[in-house]
Amino acid sequence: MAEGRKRRVGSEAARPEIANPDRIIDGALSLIAAQGWRNVSLAAVADEAGLPILQVYRLFPSKTAILCGWLRRIDEAVLATPPDAEERPRDRVFDLLMRRFDALQPYRAALEALRRDLRADPLTAVALGGALLRSMRLMLEAAGIACHGVGGALAVKLTAASYLAASRTWSHDESPDLAPTMAALDRRLHGIERWLVPGSRAFRRPENAEA
To answer: To which CATH superfamily is domain 1-61 assigned?
Structure first.
């Protein structure tokens, strides 16, 4: 009997990897929207995706890893079309961040659940905060904005703060063209514009530091 069990285990281990990352991410987001972050397990995600938990674990060893994979997917969608090199740096960043809101439109319910539940999960919140900063650095670099040095680090953090502030407007914005979100984001980026042009960065208080 033991030998039979070993043969079965060996046969299962030899099965080819067939898991699709998007299938796992979409399953997780669907569960988060319906049940909230705290009630979702890796096993539940595997069941929702119709996959063995081992295949999910090989790609995403935790729920947080799934969320980080989702953010990477959003980054890729945003960067699929390069920004217009003829525009001002602020306008290029504006265009990229609005594309980001467009890409997030189908996931509003999941994002609302995450905003609510991550208050009680600081470790995941910190991990996602780091992922967001990496995304914002990528957005600035895609817009042709240097991110090196202290000034570059501040530009990344201020861009992230501007994006998060505009996202609060976006979360309640039901307009077809997202005009309120565009206005909020444009206002925020205007306040940090000098930090988006390396030659004009100066170490003084940003206009919207306490906004």
So the answer is: Homeodomain-like (1.10.10.60)
